[in-house]
């Protein structure tokens, strides 16, 4: 393998990428707008949920319940009639609807255990489950305070001292921004290398390479280093200017150590992208293969939910995926400030998995060229 050939072929790939505006837009979007929206738009807990309240009692206790819902968990409740309750929920105007029946306070003071109806729009899953528990807790606390005639702070027999590590402000946006940057590395590294190979097949330039004095290894390595360099540079700029700059998310560990891990992850995923491109016959088929590969990689590797909450069989199988080790490494370095002494097993695993994927991809690529 001649280094000069690998370099020149890689430069050719970079020039080819500059002439593909859609891929350039995808790169910019994945490392800017996508990261920003992941940090701001999808909170994990209740946030400004819409609620409508039907107050048929018009009593002091019902007024206490109405005024107990306020931002940031809920928007200011809208007082509605019983006839509006179903129509507003059908139209998607309210996520929660609370119906306080007539004579509620009278039955409460008489010890009759009256009921309050809570309607929940369960299609809004991100807020429906936690919101129902919030509403039950708020209503119960207000009723208990009304019956007790004083506000009970609920003192415990012990004093709990809470210390939040790595995210003292409990800011959900910090996790969303970095997690989305990690997933963008995997997605783009597979997409760019696969698209580069399929683009050459569709344009007929792959035949030009076959008559040149270059080897399949040189062609494959050139695609890996060129597309990998683009993703690596885009990731670095995103972490510096978007994550740390625009979103003010602190990075605890060494950025250089993370970039080393990202380079090994890109080496493995770009090899995977070439393998998928040799299997697919066209760009639409490549897109379908991406759906089959990216979804399990993102969902089961620990980026969305902790691996400990998955079945042990899934945990064991996903150890063969580079994403699993890269997410462990990235979270350890960026969130917890871990050093090389902690993440070296993940680095070694990425080297081994990347070498295996490169070997199988090169073998398939040679068959593809023949």
How are the SSEs ordered, and which strands pair?
Layout: H1 3-18, H2 21-30, H3 33-40, E1 51-55, H4 60-67, E2 78-79, H5 82-90, E3 96-100, H6 104-109, E4 117-120, H7 125-148, H8 172-203, H9 205-210, H10 216-246, H11 255-279, H12 283-300, H13 312-317, H14 322-335, H15 340-369
Parallel strand pairs: 1-2, 1-3
Antiparallel strand pairs: 3-4
Helix pairs in contact: 1-10, 2-8, 3-8, 8-10, 8-11, 8-12, 8-14, 10-11, 11-14, 11-15, 14-15
Structure overview:
- The protein has 370 residues and is mainly α.
- The protein folds into 2 domains: 3-41 and 171-369, no CATH class; 51-148, abc type-2 transporter like domain (abc type-2 transporter like fold, 3-Layer(aba) Sandwich), CATH 3.40.1710.10.
- Helix content is 66%, strand content 4%.
- It has helices at residues 3-18, 21-30, 33-40, 60-67, 82-90, 104-109, 125-148, 172-203, 205-210, 216-246, 255-279, 283-300, 312-317, 322-335, 340-369; strands spanning 51-55, 78-79, 96-100, 117-120.
- A 4-stranded mixed sheet has the order 2-1-3-4, with helices on both faces.
- α4 links the parallel β1 (51-55) and β2.
- α8 runs parallel beside α11 (255-279).
- It is elongated and about 95 Å long.
- The model has no long low-confidence stretch (mean pLDDT 86).
């Amino acid at each position: 393998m001649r280094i000069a050939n690998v370099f020149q072929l890689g430069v050719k790939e970079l020039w080819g990428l500059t002439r593909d505006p859609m891929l350039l837009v995808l790169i910019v979007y994945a490392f800017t707008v996508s990261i920003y929206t992941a940090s701001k738009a999808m909170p994990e807990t209740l946030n400004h949920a819409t609620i409508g309240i039907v107050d048929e009692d018009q009593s002091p206790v019902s007024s206490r319940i109405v005024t107990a819902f306020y931002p940031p968990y809920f928007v200011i409740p809208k007082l509605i009639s019983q006839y509006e309750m179903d129509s507003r929920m059908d139209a998607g105007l309210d996520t929660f609807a609370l119906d306080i029946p007539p004579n509620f306070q009278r039955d409460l003071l008489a010890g009759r255990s009256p009921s309050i109806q809570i309607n929940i729009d369960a299609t809004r899953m991100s807020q429906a489950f936690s919101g129902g528990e919030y509403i039950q807790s708020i209503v119960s606390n207000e009723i208990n305070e009304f019956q007790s005639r004083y506000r009970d702070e609920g003192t415990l027999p012990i004093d709990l001292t809470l210390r939040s590590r790595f995210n003292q402000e409990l800011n959900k946006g910090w996790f969303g921004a970095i997690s989305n940057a990690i997933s963008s590395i995997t997605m783009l590294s597979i997409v760019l290398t696969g698209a580069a190979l399929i683009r050459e097949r569709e344009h007929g330039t792959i035949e030009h390479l076959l008559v040149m004095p270059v080897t399949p290894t040189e062609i494959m390595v050139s695609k890996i280093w060129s597309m990998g360099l683009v993703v690596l540079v885009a990731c670095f700029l995103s972490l510096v200017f978007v994550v740390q700059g625009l979103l003010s998310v602190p990075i605890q560990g060494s950025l250089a150590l993370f970039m080393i891990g990202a380079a090994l992850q890109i080496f493995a995923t770009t090899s995977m992208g070439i393998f998928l491109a040799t299997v697919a016959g066209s760009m639409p088929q490549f897109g379908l293969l991406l759906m089959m590969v990216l979804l399990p990689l993102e969902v089961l590797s620990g980026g969305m939910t902790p691996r400990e909450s998955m079945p042990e069989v899934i945990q064991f199988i996903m150890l063969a995926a580079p994403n699993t080790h890269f997410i462990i490494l990235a979270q350890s370095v960026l969130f917890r400030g871990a050093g090389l002494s902690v993440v070296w097993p993940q680095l070694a695993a990425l080297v081994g998995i990347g070498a295996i994927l490169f070997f199988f991809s090169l073998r398939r690529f040679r068959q593809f060229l023949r």
